[in-house]
Design a protein that fits this description.
alpha+beta; Ntn_hydrolases_N; Rossmann fold; 15 helices; binds iron/sulfur cluster; Glutamine Phosphoribosylpyrophosphate, subunit 1, domain 1; PurF; binds magnesium ion; binds glutamine; glutamine amidotransferase; six-stranded antiparallel beta sheet; seven-stranded antiparallel beta sheet; 2 domains; binds 1-O-pyrophosphono-5-O-phosphono-alpha-D-ribofuranose
Amino acid sequence: MKEHCGVFGAVGPEATRLTFEGLKLLQHRGQESAGISWRKGGFITTLKGLGLVGEALDPSKIEESNLSIGHVRYSTTGSVTLEEAQPLDNGNISVSFNGTITNHFLFGRYSTDTEFILKFLAERISSGVSLVDSVKSFIDVADGAFSLLILSSQGEIIAVRDPRGFRPLVIGEIAETKVVSSEDSAIKQLGGKVISYVRPGEIVTLRENEIIREGISNLTPTTCSFEYIYFSRSDSEIDGVSVYASRIRLGEVLAKYHPANGEIVIPVPDSSRPIALGFSRASGIPLEEALVRTISSKRSFIMPSNERRKEVLKEKFGVVEWAVKGKKVVLIDDSIVRGNTMRRLITSLRDNGVREVHVRIGSPMIKYPCYMGIDFPRRSDLIANVGDVDKIAKEIDADSLEYLTVKEMEEAIGRTTLCKACFAGSYPLKGRYVLSNLESVFAR
Ligand SMILES: O=P(O)(O)OC[C@H]1O[C@H](OP(=O)(O)OP(=O)(O)O)[C@H](O)[C@@H]1O
Ligand SMILES: NC(=O)CC[C@H](N)C(=O)O
Ligand code: SF4
Ligand SMILES: [Mg+2]
């Protein structure tokens, strides 16, 4: 799957430096491109590049400013080009966003949903509507997921979270500077503190001397379960719920309802580590770090094509033969999407003399596409499509395979206000869409 993106913004002293540092701490959310916009003398400048933050942005080209937003991208629309990288600016406003505008195609032909947002707002503003009111009419018409930052040449940043709160967004402060970030771990690691998680539907205006918060949605939030399962960093809290604690509990609940007859528990690094730890503690089966992740490897799931995903996986894992040879192992991952990771790992484990592989997954089976910020837009891409659990087990060559149920996942995360569309098929969207139409609109 391709997924999310990360957004970071700052108002106050050292805004651009903090944005640059913040983006590095959100790198797990997007690895295709990175960009920063800042305001100097009433003008907006944007610097963008392809690749990781360190490759894409030369810090010596970033000017000092007290108003800045940034982005790390994992595309869900369009392609991986510099033009489509974010932030996207028109000289007047600059837009940086995490999510997918599910209905953007109903408003015209845009290369990305970000372009739609920018043009929608620009059109309202040019007809005399204020930025905040333009944002309000955007919220009225847009469907889907958006944690969105808008930097204005007038000297403010507006931060908005969609009315269902699909993606995380948090405001905080680092010394004198007000910041907004996809995840609170970035704020805390930079020495700052959280002011508040942005509430679903809320519009926050950040200026040097004030924060104005308005508008809250009365819809039940449906925050993406995958933020807890895979996407966010373990040291983040989403809306006050610890991602690490959720992952530990996913493992404990997995051990409780889906025990496995193995001699060691092996995590698939990185994101399943706390899940495997929870499973190991609850089951009493010792944990072995028998898969070693190549230090330079990227997240495979957020690569833009299946070829690139497989390339990443080829170099990603080594197996500690000493730890696994002759053993029955319980292999824990947070999710199976296309099955690339599992296929590859089980083959490697067997090549290293493993006797039995029992796979336990810390999420329910992914059967439906996502159009709310994560990039698995076609049913045919999902391994769940090959049939029932036994067929999938056969496909990945596992001796046994079990997933959590949706209820068990909710029990573990400790939150029922979650989106579960990719597991259950019912989409918490405003509009009703025919799945096969969305599949062709979002096919890339
Ligand atoms: O079934 P698949 O299509 O292979 O996708 C699922 C895998 O992708 C993710 O890992 P990823 O490599 O993206 O990142 P991680 O190192 O953070 O776990 C996820 O944690 C699974 O391991
Ligand atoms: N993952 C995301 O949040 C992607 C943002 C936006 N839909 C894009 O394609 O650039
Ligand atoms: S469909 Fe799945 S991946 Fe997409 S927002 Fe909902 S829970 Fe998250
Ligand atoms: Mg993984």
